[in-house]
Specification:
- The protein has two domains: 204 residues, Glycogen Phosphorylase B (Rossmann fold, 3-Layer(aba) Sandwich), CATH 3.40.50.2000; 167 residues, Rossmann fold, CATH 3.40.50.2000.
- The chain contains 15 helices and twelve strands.
- The model has no long low-confidence stretch (mean pLDDT 89).
- Helices cover 46% and strands 13% of the residues.
- The chain is α/β, with parallel strands linked by helices.
- The strands form three sheets. The protein has a six-stranded parallel β-sheet with strand order 9-8-7-10-11-12, with helices on both faces. Strands 3-4-5-6 form a four-stranded parallel β-sheet.
- Helix 4 packs parallel to helix 6.
- The two termini are 34 Å apart.
- One of its GO terms (molecular function) is glycosyltransferase activity.
Length: 379
């Protein structure tokens, strides 16, 4: 998508582009379009930014993207790959944000020419695989065949940047070279910029877009609990409905400044991440940077991956309001027993998470991946 869409994948694309500008590369980012109604003025970036780069492809036009941006994004390049190739062929290193037909068709030509190609996995592909319930296995097989069969059959060489171990297991299962798979939970959260406070009150926070895929239905249920101090940070189509239902202990902050966000997180104890599916969850990592205990949906690949890195980070529960409320109440009791021990655990949680997820750590890992990929392509 264009960067103005401001989703997690777009944020990662922007941050990765800026990272490699700092490494001395001349970076160009191509935006594949934006759903009609989302258009806003582009910001200023340290890299070359080309929004709406493929308007000759009907799948990259606003009306089609608005109808179903998850599916249409995956179909960009199905017929126009030669024109797209001609537009981008003069670069040395390529990073595709997610596995799509654009990656298969254009990436294949680039690999044949010996260009360095890295495949990212920022959301869409794995969200599509998980959104069809019992049909997901069949759908997964179809997508895998469509996108990867030709590449693997012809033994094309490309490095794979996965966000979590579940994505890594998928690529191992379809017989990708394990030595080319790197698990890097990429994000831009610098832990030194966040605070971890010893608070008297017990507070729960939600940080993210107020939309259906983020599990806002769970917030509607939590708002009915008068004894839970709930802070909701973010905006979206469910804002009005949440405001109508909120109780006296719920505060809906909407969009806030970065400084205000850091303050609200520091003053909280628990973060809930009820999203249906995410490939990572920047919000969850921001929660860990503030020492918060995470309660996440077990259906959501990325948040589930995060909490299972260490028991102290939190827990994944079935996506049901009763499960979230039960876990919130359990943590509240723990804090009431000993605020000193509770704060010590918050600090320990932040310390352990920083060694895994801090932006400085993952930046280095991603630079190492690119350096290895470039060296490999020159052999």
């Amino acid at each position: 998508m264009n960067l103005e869409f401001a989703g997690g994948g777009e944020a990662n694309a922007r941050d990765i582009a800026e990272l490699f500008v700092r490494q001395g590369y001349d970076v160009t980012l191509f935006g594949a379009g934006i759903p009609k109604g989302y258009e806003t003025k582009a910001g200023k970036y340290s890299f070359n930014y080309v929004p709406d780069a493929f308007t000759f492809d009907i799948m990259a036009t606003g009306p089609v993207l608005k109808f179903s941006h998850i599916l249409s994004m995956g179909l960009i390049g199905i017929y126009t790959y030669n024109r797209i190739y001609e537009k981008i062929k003069d670069f040395d290193v390529y990073y595709f944000v997610s596995p799509t037909l654009l990656f298969r068709n254009v990436g294949y030509r680039l690999m044949k020419e010996g260009k360095t190609v890295v495949l990212g996995n920022h959301g869409t592909y794995f969200e599509v695989l998980d959104m069809y319930g019992f049909a997901s296995k069949a759908y997964s097989k179809i997508l895998t065949t469509m996108i990867f069969h030709k590449l693997l059959k012809n033994k094309m060489k490309f490095y794979i940047h996965v966000q979590n171990k579940y994505q890594a297991q998928y690529y191992e299962k379809i017989k990708c070279n394990r030595s080319y798979i790197r698990e890097i939970p990429y994000n831009n959260v610098k832990f030194s910029g966040y605070k971890c406070l010893d608070n008297d009150n017990f507070s729960v926070v939600y940080l993210g877009r107020l939309m259906e895929s983020k599990g806002v239905d769970m917030l509607l249920e939590l708002e009915k609990k008068a004894d839970i101090n709930l802070h909701i940070i973010g905006k979206g189509p469910y804002m009005e409905k949440l405001q109508q239902m909120k109780n006296k202990n719920t505060v809906i902050h909407g969009y806030v400044s970065n400084a205000e966000k850091i303050k609200l997180l520091a003053e909280s104890d628990v973060m809930i991440v009820p999203s249906i599916n995410e490939s990572l969850s920047i919000s969850a990592i921001e929660g860990l940077a503030s020492g918060l205990y995470l309660i996440v949906s077990s259906t959501s690949m990325g948040p589930r991956y995060i909490v299972r890195q260490d028991n102290i980070f939190g827990v994944a529960v079935p996506r049901n309001p009763k499960n979230f409320i039960k876990e919130i109440e359990r943590i509240k009791i723990i804090k009431e027993r000993s605020k000193t021990d509770f704060y010590s655990e918050k600090m320990l949680r932040r310390e352990i998470a920083g060694k895994m997820f801090d932006a400085n750590v993952v930046d280095k890992e991603l630079v190492d991946l690119f350096n290895d990929a470039i060296k490999d392509s020159k052999r």
